[in-house]
TrEMBL record, chain A:
It comes from Anhinga anhinga (Anhinga). Keywords: Membrane, Transmembrane, Transmembrane helix. It comes from the Eukaryota. One of its GO terms (biological process) is endoplasmic reticulum to Golgi vesicle-mediated transport. The keyword Membrane applies. This is Protein YIPF. Residues 16-167 form the Yip1 domain. The chain crosses the membrane at residues 58-79, 91-113, 119-141, 153-172. It is a multi-pass membrane protein.
Automatic annotation (TrEMBL), chain B:
Keywords: Membrane, Transmembrane, Transmembrane helix. One of its GO terms (molecular function) is small GTPase binding. Residues 101-273 form the Yip1 domain. It comes from Calidris pygmaea (Spoon-billed sandpiper). Coiled coil: none annotated. This is Protein YIPF.
Length: 174, 306
């Protein structure tokens, strides 16, 4: 119960990113795991025409999120960042929350139809959530970087969330 | 003590005469260790030989070895060893990218921008960006090309991302490895004056791929002529960066081997560009008429039926 409350508190922190150190001090990876699994599950069932050209498989989404988070953490540590390895993974994983919400919204919109209007709605929602994710993670991570290398650390985070947003936006049901 | 003083004064006198005769000479005194004159030598020599320095880098390779010895002193299983490859600031990365996009004729990219501080940040993240740019742009371009057709069902083509990643990372790491091995082998035979470390070659290749990122985005335009013009342009720019970097390293070799090496570098670079264009971007079909033409046909049909 205590762990659940901690996870819930972190979710709230991500939705309203203030520069608090609670997220950074007590890291846990439950939240990122739950988010990653639900995102990967929601990305299934799309246009897999039994050809290989469909969307990402479950394992691919998993690998991209975790491997991407590890690479970004390594990158920020190699550039001289002072944040610890698991703290950075925790922050990057939790900041996938807005994009998971976007995926949920996209699936609901696609139930209603898949024409141009639904595409525009999905585009707006995904772009907004992508911006929110990137800003939230940057707000948490930016302070631990040396000042003249901030852009070098923020760019891979931008790329990471861009790839996830692309996967969400291009999801087309059968 | 007096004898030592006499000795010192005499040496100073000699040194003064020698300096008057040859201003660039080293001065050696008895109680100084042997390394310092070498440093003084390097520093005295540098302003005069800067033009040669940039292309040939004779002195620079001495300094490079010294600096390399000082920098990478941590054993390779520690984290600090790898941290030395990421010792760049934002403005340095931006400068290197600028240098790869606007090659100045006659200036060597490695000497001018890298200056014995090769980084792995640029090559790694430029390759990652390129992989995703090519995959996303290819997907978008195919979507727009096939947009009108009733039988077309959009697929995200996610498998192509892994293929793009394998190709681009293999190119950016295996070709420099092969080139470095080849240059080392020729160096042992011919005693070239310029030699690059493996990381510097990886650095040049990584940064030279940057121009393909905006090119890939512009390849969304479904016109064959535009795509080929863009390809020639970017191939010219990045190819010239590579050629200007590696020509000083091979020009003292046998003429045919030098030309063959530089030719191979350019051909491999061209193959990468052509291969990416052919595989990830469907050809804009010529038999399916563009939206303007059906209206034209309809109007001619109407005029004919009158």
């Amino acid at each position: 119960m205590r762990d659940l409350k901690a996870v819930g508190k972190k979710f709230v922190h991500v939705m309203y990113p203030k520069k608090s150190s609670a997220l950074l001090r007590d890291w846990d990876l439950w939240g990122p795991l739950v988010l990653c699994v639900s995102l990967a599950l929601m990305l299934q069932g799309g246009s897999a025409d039994s050809k290989d050209d469909g969307g990402p498989q479950f394992a691919e989404v998993f690998v991209i999120i975790w491997f991407g988070a590890v690479v970004i953490t390594l990158n920020s540590k190699l550039l001289g960042g002072t944040i610890s390895f698991f703290q950075s993974l925790c922050v990057l994983g939790y900041c996938v929350l807005p994009l998971t919400v976007a995926m949920l919204v996209c699936r609901l919109v696609l139930l209603a139809g898949s024409g141009t209007v639904s595409f525009i709605i999905r585009l707006i929602v995904v772009v907004a959530m992508f911006g929110w994710s990137t800003l939230a993670s940057t707000a948490f991570l930016a302070d631990s970087q040396p000042p003249n290398r901030k852009a070098l650390v923020v760019y891979p985070i931008f790329l990471f969330y861009f790839v996830i947003s692309w996967m969400i936006l291009t999801f087309t049901p059968q | 003590m007096a004898a030592v003083d006499d000795l010192k004064f005499q040496e100073f006198d000699d040194a003064a005469n020698l300096l008057a005769a040859n201003p660039d000479a080293t001065t050696i005194s008895i109680d100084e260790p042997a390394e310092i004159p070498r440093n003084q030598h390097g520093r005295l020599q540098e302003p005069g030989r800067e033009e040669d320095d940039e292309l040939l880098g004779t002195d620079d390779s001495d300094k490079t070895e010294l600096l390399a010895g000082q920098k990478k002193s941590a054993p390779f299983w520690t984290f600090d060893y790898y941290q030395t490859f990421f010792d760049v600031d934002t403005y340095q990365v931006l400068d290197r990218i600028k240098g790869s996009v606007f090659p100045v004729p006659g200036k060597n990219f490695v000497r001018l921008y890298i200056r014995s501080n090769p980084d792995l940040y640029g090559p790694f993240w430029i390759c990652a960006t390129l992989v995703f740019t090519i995959a996303v742009s290819g997907n978008l371009s195919n979507f727009f090309i096939h947009l009108g057709k009733p039988t077309y069902h959009y697929v995200p083509e996610f498998r192509k991302v892994s293929i793009a990643a394998t190709t681009i990372y293999a190119y950016a790491w295996l070709v420099p490895l092969a080139l470095w091995g080849f240059l080392m082998w020729r160096n042992s035979k011919v005693m070239n004056i310029v030699s690059y470390s493996f990381l510097e070659i990886v650095c040049v290749y990584g940064y030279s791929l940057f121009i393909y990122i905006p090119t890939a985005i512009l390849w969304i335009i479904p016109q064959k002529v535009v795509r080929w013009v863009l390809m020639m342009f970017s191939l010219g720019l990045s190819g010239s960066v590579l050629v200007m970097t590696f020509w000083p390293a091979v020009r003292d070799d046998n003429r045919r081997i030098a030309l063959a090496t530089v030719g191979t570098i350019v051909v491999l670079h061209a193959l990468l560009a052509v291969g990416c264009l052919a595989y990830f971007f469907d050809a804009p079909e010529l038999d399916f008429p563009a939206p303007i033409i059906p209206a034209h046909n309809v109007s001619t049909v109407i005029t004919k039926s009158r």
